[in-house]
Amino acid sequence: MASLVIEKISRKKSGKISLEIDARKLERLAANFGFFNPEFLEALSRSEKDFACGNFQNIKSLKELES
User: Fold this and answer.
1) Which of 20, 21, 40, 41 has the fewest CB within 10 Å, making it most exposed?
2) Neighbours of 28 (CB within 10 A)
3) What's the pLDDT at 48?
């Protein structure tokens, strides 16, 4: 995986982090994570259809998925 240089990171008191990154570097990062993979894009399309049909469950934490 290629290295990634982050241009600017801002920390706010609300606990949020703001990250500034070049568009080309973002595309390279997305490719490294496999976001352009056909299987990922197909799964994303299926999940959008499920959401449109109301087939989803609201959760507050990933721990709720353990059971």
Assistant:
1) 20
2) 16
3) 94
Q: How far apart are CA 2 and CA 67, in angstroms?
A: 37
| The predicted structure's pLDDT at residue 8 | 65
**Spatial distance between the Cα atoms of 39 and 47, rounded to a whole number of angstroms:** 12
- Taking the whole predicted model, whether its pTM rises above 0.90 is answered as no
- pLDDT at residue 33 tops 70: yes
Q: Are 43 and 50 in contact (CB under 8 A)?
A: no
Q: How far apart are the C-alpha atoms of 22 and 26, rounded to whole Å?
A: 6
Please give the Cα distance from 11 to 5 (Å, whole number): 17
The answer to whether 45 touches 37, Cβ cutoff 8 Å, is no
CA dihedral sign of residues 55, 43, 65, 63: negative
